[in-house]
Amino acid sequence: MTIKRQWMLVLLISVALSVIVNSLVLSFRINRYFVDYSTENYQSHVSQVVAFSTEALSSNDYTTQQLDMQLASHLSDPINRIRLYRADGVLLADVGGTNFQSMGMMRNEMMNRMMGATAEEVDSIDIQKDGAVIGKLIITRYSSIGESLGTRRFLLSLVTNSLISFGIVFAMTFVLGYFISKRMSKDLMMTAQQAVDIDLGRESRTPQSHVLEIKTIQQSLETLHSRLMLKQTSRKKLIDELVHQTRTPLTILRTHLEGFQDGVIQFTPDEVKTCEAQIENLSSIITNMSGLIDAGKEIDRTQITAVELSGLIRQIVAGLKAQFNSKPLALQVLSHQKVMVQTDPYQLSQAIYNLLTNAFKFTEPSGSVAIAYEIMDSELVISIRDTGIGISSEDQVRVFDAYFRGNNALNTAGEGIGLYIVKENLRKIGGSIELESALGEGSKFTIRLPVEQQ
Description:
Elements: H1 3-59, H2 64-72, E1 79-86, E2 91-96, H3 103-114, E3 120-129, E4 132-142, H4 149-200, H5 212-262, H6 269-291, E5 305-308, H7 309-326, E6 330-333, E7 340-343, H8 345-361, E8 368-376, E9 379-386, H9 393-396, H10 418-428, E10 432-438, E11 442-450
Parallel strand pairs: 6-8
Antiparallel strand pairs: 1-2, 1-4, 3-4, 5-7, 8-9, 9-11, 10-11
Helix pairs in contact: 1-4, 4-5, 5-6, 7-8, 8-10
């Protein structure tokens, strides 16, 4: 059963139980109140009839018609017949029952038969004056006041109104529940499609749900998607680099083997060691490649060595010079002093390379990009400044997040991962990066690396 149907079923059952229980409780309490009221009303009528009968028997001033009219006024549910006798047994008045043929009483009798009223009971009351019995009052009523015609009508009205209320509430709940369940099921179906898209490696643009739990699941899926994309991108980049690294030892080995065949190179111990070293390099590269098969295994590729910074920067700039000239952009190196630093040359060069290519993408033609460095307070400070489009203060908070792209960079090619790699590479070698930028005024990235004083 789908969540939509389960939600509708639970909602409708809950509403039905709530209305039924509420109706039963209210019906019982209101009916109990009405029965008490009917009992008090009956006792009041009886008292009035007794008082009138005592006066009538004492004065003998009332005609038979007057007696009937006065007693008939007290034919109120549950009383359906009143008879008045003198002390000698002579019947003075008989109203109600089959002898009283008013339209109202006829309707009452018909309703009484239709509703199946219970048997009648007779209350016999002696009329006394000054201690002497002067007459007898016979009152015929329903055997139980709680089952009188009026009480039954009232109870029937309660049940009818409860059923009408139940129908209205049930219909409103059904309509409301249908739309709510449809909306929730739509969000769940979109979330399921989002998971399928992630599994198949497709782009997923799922609108966020307004339901907190579903929204949390969607955000978790988005985070998972980002991590998977990052791992896939990082793994591909690493494999490409490792494949590229195999070319150097293979080229050296092939050159030596060709030299051996041509007799140009002799099998000296030094030459053999050179070939063995290249074989070890290939073995290490292949080992790293096989380790990538394990998706949960992180490979630590950080190798700290002594790096001469000016030479590293010249090498990076030389590789990018032709690209910058084609735009054209001015690429300037403002510092030339030799600085030795203990770091990973690959991690640092990749960070500088990404910052320069990032500046290239977001700087208009005829602009400029400058790189400078210096030692300040036991830190190597490398700054890269451009005259590009700049970054808004809102975007600066997330600019180093994976796959984040600012509003003014949406039309530029790229995946939004370059600055994230810069930050991660610097973190691995103990460095940090800072950003100063303003829209339309360019950006300045500052790399800080700790250095040991010589």
